[in-house]
């Protein structure tokens, strides 16, 4: 039998990497199990001219399309938004667009401010030092001082506005609406051994240059040098417990498909808002018949996706196409509640630079604006390199019927039940999306755009997987406490997006990692009485 480790982390993505690095200074024996492997940047699509074509197959953001051995299938038939993720060292940070906003202070007090959802048991100020630490570790670029966003201090200057940004900014100025250069985790100068961005290709899928900050090239090298053990191609099936209800370790399948048991004194889950409830629900026992840490019945409930309302059009001037990070500006003009709009809460906006030629051809043909026949090439030249996009990240409020359960039939390659998604977009979110599309149309028309098209919601837009093991002080209304420890199992912690109480209207990765660092700090402060 293997010797027990002090801390076992499940998942090597955004949160798993951050918590491993932070705990490494304790000199405990820390082991991370990751079902994927180390990535080889020489094999990334952006090293070849066919990078866009590969995004429709082996490098799709959807595990159901990719079907790599490291992936697990997801039954999302009963959802208008499909789950997208990535399994590897670095997790979905390998594939993300590197857009880097934070949750706002108001997002932590939604019940108090707006009378909906619940307040978090912590506030923005508790996370501030960890946001700053994470920005240094990941290497953010941006312009400090946005009047409508939390104050940040990026260590690198912002991305160039580019051709697209200048067009958008002029239109927003004419309308009198807020905009600001986006914070990103793409290097604008040589930083911590990583070279600056050279516009090798679209940031999604994967950056062969190493300018985009995925955790396999930021946190993990530091964590491994500090003594953390990272074991790849290890898929965890269940977390085991003893007669006292304490976690004792995990059962997993190794790279050869052989079942193994790894004992541990502390277990930390970092498997995202779908993978974490899947694992907890599959770890049921006589003591935990409804799944591990699920006395509240809320494991898997309150799934929040962020419905994306996207509208785009085509201007006469050239835009940036697939050159540079895909998001150039953001706007928080409609972020907080204004009841005159007809809904509570709000949305953030990302302005997208454009699209590459293959993507443009495929999507425009599907939309019916690119004809076949003798007019094909003329219209394509009009569209290609002239796209301008407005994408609204609409806040999802928690609703228990939006959930992750275990599929009774579908299984992964090791026979573990796959997650099943049941999700509907709320009336509040639909009103928010309609409002966003109307504002986006105004911006595009002010910029002189024509051939305006809509994706609402973006169907392959389930990047943000939140809320399915929520944080709170009441064990009947939450899964983990205010420092990430599960109410039911004193040596089991969760650090990923599943612990979100509300979703905000921004991309969550920065906040997920700040939470992971905060929880690690709490664990270090409480080491003497961790199991009390």
From TrEMBL:
PANTHER family referenced in this protein's UniProt entry, alphabetically: LONG-CHAIN-ALCOHOL OXIDASE
Signal peptide (UniProt feature, chain positions): none
Keyword line: FAD, Flavoprotein, Oxidoreductase
Domain Glucose-methanol-choline oxidoreductase C-terminal: 398-516
Organism field: Bradyrhizobium zhengyangense
InterPro entries, per the entry: FAD/NAD-bd_sf (IPR036188), GMC_OxRdtase_N (IPR000172), GMC_OxRtase_C (IPR007867)
UniProt similarity note: Belongs to the GMC oxidoreductase family.
Protein name stated in the entry: GMC family oxidoreductase
Record-annotated Glucose-methanol-choline oxidoreductase N-terminal domain positions: 6-307
